[in-house]
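call fold target=pyridoxal kinase
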Amino acid sequence: MTNAEVVAELERERDRRVLSIQSHVVHGYAGNKCSVFPLQLHGFEVDAINSVQFSNHAGYETVKGQKLTEKELEDLYEGLTANKINNYTHVLTGYCGNVTFLQKIADVVKDLKQKDPETKFVCDPVMGDNGRYYTPKELMPVYRDLIIPLADVLTPNAFELGELTGSPIETEEDCLKAVGELHAKGVKTIVVTSGVTGAQTQESLRCYASVQGSDCYRFTFPRLMGQFVGTGDVFASLLVVWLDELNGDISEAVKKVLSSLQCLIRKTSDYAQLQVDTNSRAMCELRLIQSRKELLWPPSCDKIHVEKVGK
């Protein structure tokens, strides 16, 4: 890009405002700390509600902090409503720690959609990964019965997809069948972000994206060294950006998201390896700020392969 094009992009006005209801950490990156910055970088206004406020993410030895209650969420939303400032083009949700809070999120989304049916609800149904829950199991039926019917875009990993549909997801065939079941419940766009073990190798990972009544895509990309907290939150926020920018073109949107994430993870992994002698979780925090150029302008990446797959 030329300097003039860079300046023009940075000065471009975007009439977009996101209500982001996710976790928050004081130090490091998870939840809203991962999602708000990429959205703002792309010119989206963001109103953030923190479902929890913790000192740091759960990868550390000690975690301290507070959890927002459903009554406190209700109070915040009532304040927005009373002042007639509950005007959103998008709602983005992530980690939620208890059933009643998640039920109240459903009430908020219903009210916003009744006010403006064009409001897009992007839901990351955070429950667990790698075969285990790290949230209460009681959240699952709330996601399945209340949240999913409201969602325009859903971004589960394979474990979460399996829990929501009642069948374990081990192969590509399992994945596509389960995606079809969620489409039947009304979710227009589904991106399975990770964890289809039978479709992965030691060198590569895969994710899948599908639009109801249209094509389904398989994305194959390099497996990078390390496991880092917050990558799913970055994924969801960038997906909001690129689906909006590309008018719902799921193939190109997910490719751009993956391109930015590959750069972010590689930069984080390289830094963590250089600091390996310190043996500290703090050295493994996402290099989010240091990757702002790649978050804003995803580089072309010939290592991300996109193919159509049958449903």
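return ok
The CA atoms of residues 124 and 303 lie 26 Å apart. The chain has a mean pLDDT of 94.
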